[in-house]
Amino acid sequence: MKKLLALMLALLMVFAFCGCGEEAVEENTEVKVLTMGTNAAFPPYEMVDENGAIIGIDAEIAAAIAEKMGMTLEIKDMAFDSLITAVSSGAVDVVLAGMTVTEERMEAVNFSESYATGIQVVIVTEDSEIATIEDLAGKKIGVQTGTTGDIYCSGDYGEEAIARYDNGAIAVQALQNGQVDCVVIDNEPAKAFVEANEGLKILETEYITENYAAAIAKENTELLEAFNAALAELQADGTIDAIIGKYIKAE
Ligand code: GLN
Prior knowledge:
11 strands; 24% strand; alpha/beta; single chain; binds glutamine; 251 residues; nine-stranded mixed beta sheet; two-stranded antiparallel sheet; D-Maltodextrin-Binding Protein, domain 2
């Protein structure tokens, strides 16, 4: 009995060592992973599907770019206002989050070439007295923390005019509950939120037009170059347009 036990133990150890050996070999040939940070509450750029997977324009563009670079994509969901720190500290390799290129962000990170445009728009209730941008003065404005909507509105109308929320959906809820008079947010998520909720509309007048790009750590110029090269190829062969067209129907 003892002998049998000893034999089993020995076998177990051999297997354990084999396991280690295999792992070491695998590591060497492993396909590199590109980690992408995003805030998956920004449809149709990023959202969570019924199976809990993060899908959307950014997820698909990043996956196509990763594939071109011979890498696989892994997506990490986090608060929008922690994305710049996450990428500049190396916690993720790249950020795709419908993120607008701004001077201030460019002090902390590099941006890829732009792959899409966004427009800041104003969501109001259907019966709202707000009809144009001019009417925003003196109103309570809901925004998503740290977004350009937040930055521009707090600059234009002052801190006291702003109510900050973790994401656009919560800001829209606050609008429906009467806690804010409007929500300033990017046009595509605005359309998705207005479609999903009764009694809301988007003002005809647009607040500001912006460029979306991927953010990459300043020191990671190698990735920036590879990313831009892959993006250019995917723009030239129509892949990027096809991905965007899948989620945004031409009007
Ligand atoms: N485009 C806006 C920004 O960059 C909002 C992006 C977002 O909420 N995901 O600030």
